[in-house]
Amino acid sequence: MTQPPHDEPTARSQEELREQVEHTRHELGDTVQALADRADVKTRAREKAVAVREQAGAKAQEWSGQARAKAAHVAHTVEEKLPEPVKQKGAAAAQGAKEKAAQAEQVWQDKAPQQVRDHRAALLAGVGVVLVACLLIRRRGNR
After folding, report:
1. So what's the pLDDT on residue 4?
2. What is the CA radius of gyration of the chain?
3. Do the beta carbons of residue 109 and residue 117 sit within 8 Å?
């Protein structure tokens, strides 16, 4: 058996070995953590879902912006090509509709009892149901 020479100081080589062992331990710990992260399928799936959701949101915003821009362009083009009398009639009709709506709201406020005004949504839903029922009954009668 051969033994290392005893006349050289080994303190420095022992310190270097300790540093190498410590460095290797850190590398091994990092490698084990990386492998554990790869093996955690739930977390990876969540991260992927978040990334896909963010990407979809960004695309939706981009497409929405493009659609708005195209709609504005089309509206501007149509407005340019409309004859002036049609524009004036449209503006007059819109103004008339606004005035009629304001008048109807005022009549509603003046004439409808407080209890009816308080339950307007329920009343409108009930009227809608009755209308649908009448249409269905009428449709069955035509068959």
Report:
1. 56
2. 39
3. yes
Residues 6+ apart with CB under 8 A from 90: 82
Strand, helix or coil for residue 128:
helix
Distances in Å between the Cα of 103 and the Cα atoms of 29, 94, 100, 109, 110 are 77, 14, 5, 10, 10
Average pLDDT value for the chain:
83
Residue 94 DSSP code: H
Separation CA 98–CA 131 (nearest Å): 26
Residues of the chain with pLDDT under 50: 1
Can you read off the two tokens belonging to residue 51?
A: 């990334």
Quick: pLDDT tens for 43-81: 888 888 889 888 988 888 998 889 889 988 888 888 888
Q: What is the dihedral of CA 26, 29, 35, 36, to 10 degrees?
A: -140
Q: How far apart are CA 114 and CA 117, in angstroms?
A: 5
